[in-house]
Specification:
Blueprint (H helix, E strand, L loop, with lengths): L2 H19 L5 H15 L6 H26 L19 H20 L2 H11 L4 H8 L4 H18 L9
Helix pairs in contact: 1-2, 1-3, 2-3, 5-7, 6-7
Amino acid sequence: MDRERVLALLRERIVAFAASRYRRDLAEDVAQEVLGLLHEKYSHVTEMTELVPLALQIARFKIMSGVRTGQRRGEATAIPVDDLPLATLDPDPAELAEKKEQLARLKEAMLSLGERCRDLMRYKLEGKSFAEIQRLFGAPSINTIYTWDLRCRKQLMEAMGGKWEAGK
């Protein structure tokens, strides 16, 4: 029997063996790896009686290696991509309503603050540093701005009911 015919028969047996014990979609890959290894390291083995058990033993080792790798990577517990819900760019209606309500509460609380606190908050939202805010207010010390900021934030928190989010 010529070598090509022997390899074709051997390939069929390896694929059948791998498909029966491992994932059917990877059986061809296992067979290809086994044949490559036989060609590289065991080219001196030519008898079919020696070649088949050797090939099946190598396939068994390759399968075991694939199983261990799959377990380590979590492939056995992976959820297929088709089963995952599609991500939507549209915001959740409940989140929108919650944000709208929170914004309304924040606006109401901001209006209840004094003018200095509202200006301080506005400057902070514009991205100004405390040193810049000190110059804008003409405060004698930056620590004065820090104190005003602390007091304004405390007043804002109290005006919001002691917490940022309603009902939490």
